[in-house]
Fold this protein.
Amino acid sequence: MSSSLPAGVPSTHEAIAYITPRQPLQSITRPTVPPKPDEILIHVTWTASTPLDLHRADGGLGFKPGQPPHIMGTCYAGTVVGLPLSPSPPSHVQLADKVFGFVQDGEPREAGVQEYITVPSNKVSKLPSNISLQQAVTVPTNLITTFHSVTKDLELELPWPIPQGWTPKEVNSPILIWGAASSVGLYTVQVLRHWGYKNLLAVASGKHHESLKKLGASECFDYNKTKVTEEILEYVERTRKEVGADGPKVPFILDCIGSTEGTLRPLTKIAENGSKVAVMLPVINVHATDDHAPELAMNVTEVKLDWEEGAVLRGVRTFFYAENPFFRDYFHRDIMPTLLEQGVVQPNPQRLVEGATLLERAQNALDLLRSRAPSGEKLVWRVAEE
Ligand SMILES: NC(=O)c1ccc[n+]([C@@H]2O[C@H](COP(=O)([O-])OP(=O)(O)OC[C@H]3O[C@@H](n4cnc5c(N)ncnc54)[C@H](OP(=O)(O)O)[C@@H]3O)[C@@H](O)[C@H]2O)c1
């Protein structure tokens, strides 16, 4: 085990933390941690925002004032600068490799918005040669969300590797992806298409329909239309005879947004007895604005809505993905880099967040999330220069 830091790595570094809800973020100094035998030390150069950042910063989700600072960042991309002397098992990355991954924000050693992180090796993916770090950092948080929600909450199979000749049992079942232009939605469409699911109904603004069809959506619907739920049900009724499905009209629903009025209420008109509805948590009862804090709920069944008896509601919690030992061990090492290298999954389009300092970029990214600026794109920003 290496107990000291490699030459050239500073003993302390900058990190960005939430201190008090609805108050500015703070730049803090953290010790740089030498890697234990199963860990890798990484110089972080890029991160990407997730709406969770806003749920934490404005909603105080998951931290309380007076607790140790909660460091931002569920993803990182950067360069390996330290390996333990005797990695166990042997490391799948080498010094100077470009890497990226999904991490737990608030976890001081690994949270993504700090210049150096020390992460378990099973949270490190090697960058494929066909994409940049800036592109790669859009992927981990929501690609793992796709795998976790589809397999755990919708109970659909995504075997890895895909056995030769394998076809999903639900090949023709309608799978409704509401919020398909969100980062989660874009990855879900691509993953389900690749695994052979052929009846993917995507709900997004009309401007995204063409690109969603290219990614694999079978049919697209615009949630800005007042009759969107009627249109979806009419389409499913019409095509049901062709695909020969029985049971609920839409058996699988992934709500990639989790908004009480924006997504859940319309979905109550679609979900029936036996439909599985997986909802991204937290449920947003009221979105944050400059003038008021958000109202968030972590239990989807407690949100008062009139669901049909027998509809199965599940709240998605991706931070528990490692309860599946296969994803814990192979998502970063194998699944994510392979899907990117083979071009099965395209990284999200990016919007670069500028700012003179790390703190300024972090704060500017939060402001963009608060004003709901991202549309079919991921906010990415520099943590440090190469
Ligand atoms: N609990 C978990 O495990 C977990 C994991 C990942 C994400 N999440 C949560 O899931 C949510 C989405 O995350 P994200 O990173 O994918 O967000 P995002 O990419 O920032 O979402 C922005 C997109 O949301 C779409 N949208 C907004 N309101 C909509 C509505 N009523 N119907 C359909 N689409 C709508 C917009 O679509 P248009 O451009 O088409 O207008 C926009 O493209 C966030 O609240 C996040 O915290 C939870």
Q: What stands out?
A: Residues 50-52, 55, 142, 145, 178-179, 181-184, 203-205, 208, 223, 256-259, 262-263, 280-281, 316-318, 374-376 surround NAP (CB under 6 Å). The domain at 142-319 is CATH 3.40.50.720 (Rossmann fold). The mean pLDDT is 96.
